[in-house]
Write a structure and sequence with these properties.
Elements: E1 2-6, H1 21-32, E2 39-41, E3 44-51, E4 54-61, H2 68-79, E5 86-92, E6 100-104, H3 112-121, E7 127-132, H4 142-149, H5 155-178, H6 180-187
Helix pairs in contact: 1-5, 2-3, 5-6
Length: 188
């Protein structure tokens, strides 16, 4: 089974935030493949189904971003998920808005949700689908960055996202059907 996790913060007040692009992308993927998030388990909203012949579990942790590892590690342990079968979708400040990067393993790159997952698993070797949200105009302090990632997308950015979110869903499908190398070649 593949465990595909979209990172974000729970609650309506965060729904449109830049930091929630992982939730947005996973929710779109779930709609396309008719997988409802119909259960709560391991502090996550989950749904299961078959996509292109692959058994998948989709999860949106409800622990808040910085504690995502708590939920992800519980699911990994319960379902005996190998790190090569774990896909994490998350926002990335270091990529321009709308760019997608798929990569295996590596550091957290300053992303606290990814850092939480690495710490909880004791292993950085899972697949990441990074979705660019760009950087704020001023990044003089951590407060500037926090305010930026917790702010909503502008109308212009939402227009761009309407094209990017389906591309992320296509990239996930490519990971499932063609493998990591092909998906990286196609979407990076």
């Amino acid at each position: 089974m593949k465990l595909i996790v979209g990172l974000g913060n729970p609650g309506k007040e965060y729904a449109g935030d830049r930091h929630n692009v992982g939730f947005m992308c996973l929710s779109h993927f779930a709609r396309v493949h008719n997988i409802p998030f119909d259960r709560k388990q391991a502090s996550a909203r989950i749904g299961t189904g078959i996509v292109a012949g692959n058994e998948v579990m989709l999860a949106r942790p409800q622990t808040y971003m910085n504690a995502s590892g708590e939920s992800v590690s519980r699911l990994v342990k319960k379902y005996h998920i190998d790190s090569s079968d774990l896909i994490i979708i998350h926002d990335d400040l270091d990529l321009p808005l709308g760019k997608i990067r798929i990569r295996p393993g590596g550091s957290a790159g300053g992303h606290k949700g990814v850092a939480s997952i690495i710490a909880a698993l004791g292993n950085p070797d899972f697949i990441r689908v990074r979705v660019g949200i760009g950087r704020p105009a001023t990044t003089e302090s951590e407060t500037d960055v926090i305010s930026y990632v917790l702010s909503d997308f502008t109308p212009e950015e939402k227009q761009l996202l309407s094209d990017i979110i389906p591309r992320v869903a296509e990239a996930i499908l490519s990971l499932l059907t063609e493998g990591l190398t092909q998906a990286m070649n196609k979407y990076n």
